[in-house]
Amino acid sequence: MKLLHAADLHIDSPLRGLAFVDGVPADEVRSATRRAFVNLIDLALAESVDVLLLAGDIFDGDWRDHQTGVFFAKELKRLEARDVRVFVARGNHDAESQISLHVALPRNVTVFGSGVVETHRMPALGLAVHGWSFDRQAVTENVARRFPQPVPGVLNVGVLHTNLDGQAGHSNYAPCSTDDLRAHGYDYWALGHVHTRRHQEFGRTHIVYPGNLQGRHAREVSAEGKGATLVTATAAGVTCVEHRVLDVVRWLACEVDIAGVTSRDEVVRMIAEQVTNATRATGRVGVARVTLTGATSLHREWALHEREISAALVAHLGQGAYVEKIVCSTQDVDTAVGLDDTLAAITTAVARASMDPALRQALCDAVGNRLGHILGVDGERALAAAELRLPTGVDPAGVDALLQAAAQRLAGRLRPSRPAQRS
Questions:
Q1: 317 vs 335: CA distance, rounded Å
Q2: Is 406 helix (H, G, I), strand (E, B) or coil?
């Protein structure tokens, strides 16, 4: 048998961050989540799957347009003609309380209820599917504990929208642990909620987040591409788990090192080349967030060049390639070079002083003669000695410690705590 597992479709949810990107094809971007869902249905038909599992957040809250629901039902109707069963679990975004509009779904579609966990058996396939839906957005109960024992002699699949193991960056809804899921003895857990693909295998148990079908903003970058999981199995267990890429617009993260570059036109060329190449490798529309790094004289004038570079990029990028944002994480070349030279000089001076007995004695005498005058009072002298780990009486060993401490302090003050950033 073949199962296709998808989650977090967020149909008709807008792709964020593109409103002010020059040249982006509005219609193509606006329809990206729909087209990714069409790709999912096409894949189900091409692979002759027996079951489609949708693990929550099909929609991004209440529909702005009734046609959102009509589109969803129409696509699932294509599967009805091929006797493909569809199981839908509601997530936090499309919980019963979140969706006020409804549309009749084809007979091949089962939407899990939000009361008890439901079990649907398909004896002809040797399959049992267990699932549950959110009745409201903020479900904080560990719902995994409600799931029943596996049905003997068949493939057992659990469908759940959950934050597994409290993953950071995700609302902690229907939380559970990996141990909770493993304890049930199911063959496959079809999860939703986390938009990053994750596949864990424990003996015969597979726990899978397929990720979302279509990335919706610059933080949803995926080198392998967004999509769904195709599962091949028998009643005795899972035999193959495959990721299938279905996204339409690919979000990219590109780092461009412009160390030593002094020409604005050269920066444009370097960005365009890298973003274009990255986009071509995907075979899709590519939208990149570019981070500039390296020591360059352009760092000081970034505020003056940023708008001109962004505007010039439009004419240089390859077809289907776009830049969502440029983040400047460069350093001033003069400051960087000067700092390196200064730190090197400090290190050399300390090393020479440590190897020259006459110089060490001269420093010892100088410190001994001047320390009281500089610090002024015995209390401050003791405090300074303790802070520098010097003996109260100045000797050559104390001078070495003083040199090392002074070098470290000076280097710490010269070295910036982090590169300047502007965006």
A1: 32
A2: helix
List C-alpha distances in Å: 299 to 21, 214, 263, 329, 414: 23, 35, 11, 9, 18
Whole-model pTM over 0.85: no
Domain positions in the chain: 2-247, 250-329, 337-414
Contacts of 295 (CB under 8 A, 6+ apart): 259, 260, 330, 331, 332, 333, 335, 336, 337
- Is the CB of residue 233 less than 8 Å from the CB of residue 190? no
> How far, in Å, CA of 241 to CA of 229, rounded?
7
Give me the percent of the chain exceeding a pLDDT of 90. 53
Would you state the torsion angle of the CA atoms of residues 205, 209, 210, 213, taken in this order, to the nearest 10 degrees?
160
| Pairwise CA distance, residues 242 & 181, whole Å | 21
At residue 423, what is the residue type? S
State how far the Cα of 405 lies from the Cα of 288, in Å rounded to an integer.
45
Type of residue numbered 131: G
C-alpha to C-alpha distance for 118 and 143, rounded to whole angstroms = 12
Q: How does residue 25 score in pLDDT terms, banded at 50, 70 and 90?
A: confident
- On whether the 2-247 domain is CATH 3.60.21.10, my answer is yes
Q: What is the layout of strands, in order, in the sheet containing 85-89?
A: 109-111, 85-89, 51-55, 2-6, 227-234, 237-245
DSSP state of 157: E
Dist. CA 175–CA 167, nearest whole Å: 9
Strand partners for 201: 206
Structure tokens at 313: 């990029």
Residue 163 · residue 195 · CB < 8 Å: no
Which ranges of 223-263 does DSSP label H, i.e. alpha helix?
Answer: none
Contacts of 315 (CB under 8 A, 6+ apart): none
Tens-digit pLDDT profile for residues 364-400: 666 666 555 544 444 444 444 444 444 444 555 566 6
Separation CA 182–CA 387 (nearest Å): 55
First CA to last CA distance, the chain? 51
List, in order, residues 6 or more apart from 199 with CB less than 8 Å away. 206, 207, 208, 209, 229, 241, 243
CA distances from 117 to 89, 141, 145, 158, 205 (A): 11, 13, 10, 10, 20
